[in-house]
Q: What sequence folds into this?
């Protein structure tokens, strides 16, 4: 069987590794903010026993430079482009969405509503989605945090505010200490935790949200094999994103597709319309 595969935002630079980006059904950019950001002070990445911590801090060139310098080159790869959008207030999100609304090469806008490495906007996720919805006609996917008591309620709230889909899940806040110095491995202290240990948490969130709302879901969190993809689809995802695995295995997209078509995977059907907006030419 096949399943739409994407990359998780921030885990792949399409311009540095275009041959990897072109293996996906859609490419998700690193999060873009209104103004350029240098990001956090290094060190910003630390390995753990079962994953990785990062505190990149939304380093990016800002929306104007992204549109003029980066987006045209990414579009040349011929892969549908999803742009991850971040900010520190509802006007930030709305302004970027309005700016992207006229960009024909942008298929979907993913709203990064839960980055653990920067201060969050004071508005709720639903308020941010509502502001973005008023500013663009493009499909909006809300990326939610697993660090909430009732993620299904968050899903219902953003769906009511105008989200067209969900991205589940973002990283969780974690900490790693150097065993010799007892100092934090990341200069910022805590960072976003990702990797295989996150997968059961992500699956629980996907399953809960799939029961709560009738929106397509991109499942992500610790995917390293075809079996992991099947688990996310069985939990209710419409597509699956690869993240941390790309740092150690850039050939993972091809390998995982091969595993899914090897014949050992069980039959699994997706509901009609479940992948709306995920495949080339299907975004409204």
A:
């Amino acid at each position: 069987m096949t399943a739409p595969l994407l990359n998780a935002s921030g885990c792949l630079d399409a311009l540095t590794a275009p041959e990897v980006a072109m293996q996906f059904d859609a490419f998700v950019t690193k999060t873009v903010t209104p103004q350029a950001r240098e990001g956090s002070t290094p060190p910003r990445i630390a390995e753990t026993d079962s994953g990785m911590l990062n505190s990149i801090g939304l380093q990016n060139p800002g929306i104007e430079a992204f549109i003029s310098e980066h987006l045209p080159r990414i579009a040349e790869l011929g892969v549908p482009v999803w742009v991850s959008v971040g900010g520190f207030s509802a006007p930030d999100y709305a302004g970027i969405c309005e700016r992207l609304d006229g960009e024909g090469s942008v298929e979907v806008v993913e709203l990064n509503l839960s980055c653990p490495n920067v201060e969050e906007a004071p508005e709720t996720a639903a308020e941010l989605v509502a502001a973005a919805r008023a500013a663009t006609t493009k499909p909006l996917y809300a990326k939610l945090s697993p660090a909430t008591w009732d993620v299904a309620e968050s899903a219902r709230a953003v769906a009511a505010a105008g989200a067209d889909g969900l991205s589940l899940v973002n990283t969780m806040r974690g900490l790693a200490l150097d065993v010799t110095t007892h100092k934090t491995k990341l200069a910022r202290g805590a960072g976003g935790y990702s990797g295989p240990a996150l997968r059961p948490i992500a699956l629980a969130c996907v399953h809960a949200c799939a029961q709560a709302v009738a929106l397509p879901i991109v499942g992500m969190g610790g995917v390293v094999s075809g079996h992991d993809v099947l688990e996310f689809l069985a939990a209710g995802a419409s597509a699956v994103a690869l993240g941390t695995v790309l740092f150690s295995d850039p050939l993972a997209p091809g390998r995982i597709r091969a595993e899914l078509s090897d014949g050992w995977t069980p039959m699994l059907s997706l509901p009609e319309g479940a992948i709306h907006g995920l495949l080339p030419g299907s975004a409204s």
In short: Confidence is low (pLDDT under 50) at residues 264-284.
